[in-house]
Amino acid sequence: MGRVDGKVALVTGAASGLGRADARLLAAEGARVFLSDVNEDQGRAAAKDIGTGATFIAHDVGDEAAWVRVMATIEDAAGGLDILVNNAGVVQLASPEDCTLADFQFANRVMSEGVFLGCKHGLRLLKKSAAASIVNMSSVASHIGYPVFFAYTAAKGAVRAMTKSIAVHCQASGYPVRCNSIHAGAIETPMVQFAQGRTDEAPQAIPESGILPPDALGTPSDVANMVLYLASDEARFVTGTEFVVDNGMLARAAS
Q1: CA–CA separation, 120 and 78 (whole Å)
Q2: pLDDT tens-digit profile of 205-247?
């Protein structure tokens, strides 16, 4: 307990899935957490479920004016920001030939431009922190060709590259801000259920502990645990790095 005591965190896309799990764990470990999402009903329910120390803010991550407003709200309410988790994401089923320009632009607006805007406007507060951390949610899709998720793959590849540039920029500028990316494999979330055509099925029951077989899906807590580590001061010597949380998927693909 208390691994992020006294820190202020913002988690985007926190109404469900990975973002909700991230926000819950950060709050449990002592952070004051702001959850943001375009889904206001689910977002407010998530903040209420977490309880004390959790606040919901309606937020479209692709809207620059919204980022300015969110950062001003956090500064007014909490005085600063120590942790930024750029988690908001969408997925569309379309190959390079089937993907429309509108679909491509939408995916990149949320996951590429959204991460850029989060880092750009978040740094105004983060660089005033004693020790700050940006965690950008990428994907194993940035390492493997997934033509059926073409726009998603392109956006996550941009996140992977931006993360390293932001990390080096912060060091060169003397900012006390680390920046790392997480590359998760298939995690049992509403997004993965949609991608696998299981939206009408109940979520799979996955053990919260113990070793999983190669074909198993992970749980949101598997990713949240990595977010917590990177957000905490335990990771003070870690920046510009990509963390793969995929139960060996990339290793098997390379063999």
Answers
A1: 19
A2: 666 767 777 777 888 999 999 999 999 999 999 999 999 999 9
Strand partners for 33: 9, 54
- Examine the pLDDT at 255 and tell me if it is beyond 80: no
Within 8 A by CB and 6+ apart from 83, the residues are 4, 7, 8, 9, 10, 26, 31, 132, 133, 134, 135, 231
pLDDT class of 38 with cuts at 50, 70, 90: very high
| Cα–Cα dist 118/121, whole Å | 6
Count of H helices and E strands in the chain? 9, 7
CA-CA-CA-CA torsion sign (125, 127, 131, 133): positive
Model pTM score = 0.94
Total length of the chain: 255
Task: Determine the Cα–Cα distance for residues 68 and 50; give it in Å rounded to an integer.
Answer: 25
The overall average pLDDT reported for the chain is 93
Give pLDDT, residue 189. 67
| Cβ-contact 43, 88 below 8 angstroms | no
CB atoms within 10 A of CB 14: 34
Domain ranges of the chain: 8-254
Catalytic residue among 146, 152, 175, 229: 152
175 is catalytic: no
CATH of the structural domain 8-254, one choice from 3.40.718.10, 3.90.980.10, 3.20.20.70, 3.40.50.720? 3.40.50.720
